[in-house]
Amino acid sequence: MNYYADDQERVRLIAGLRDLAEFLAQNPQVPAPPYADVLVFPPPGSNAEMFAEIDVIAAQISATAAADEPGGHYRAVRHFGPVQYRAVAIPNSTRDDQGKEAE
User: Fold this and answer.
1) In 3D, which of 27, 78, 76 has the Cα closest to residue 55?
2) What is the mean pLDDT of the segment spanning 86-103?
3) CA distances (Å), 68 to each of 18, 20, 84, 90, 102, in order?
4) How far is it, in rounded angstroms, from Cα 68 to Cα 75?
5) Computed from CA positions of residues 86, 34, 79, 69, in that sequence, does the dihedral angle turn out positive or negative?
């Protein structure tokens, strides 16, 4: 499984975001959310590997990576007005706990 868009997928994503923005601008009667999130998750690995990937993304988006509470998700966020680009690593222990709850 590919966790990041390849070149063609990236082009389609960007075009789709632009199309959505243009559609909402041309159709003010259509409800729009007050904010939007674009989420990116690193490939599975050890916590150290996933957190290191978030650190790389943080540098690329000029953000500071940090853990949040209570789940300890490690994230880097860049805001574009009400739109957020968020790179998030979910610690293995949190995912393991969620899997146990589902059983």
Assistant:
1) 76
2) 70
3) 31, 31, 16, 10, 23
4) 8
5) negative
Contact residues for 24 (Cβ-Cβ < 8 A; gap 6+):
30, 32
Radius of gyration of the chain from its Cα atoms, rounded to whole angstroms = 16
The pTM score is: 0.84
What sign has the CA pseudo-torsion 70, 63, 55, 44?
Answer: positive
Residue-level pLDDT at 67:
94
Task: Assign residue 62 a region (left: φ > 0; alpha: ψ between -120 and 50; beta: otherwise).
Answer: left
CA pair distance 71, 67, nearest whole angstrom: 8
Take residue 64 and report the two structure tokens written for it: 């500071």
DSSP state of 43: P
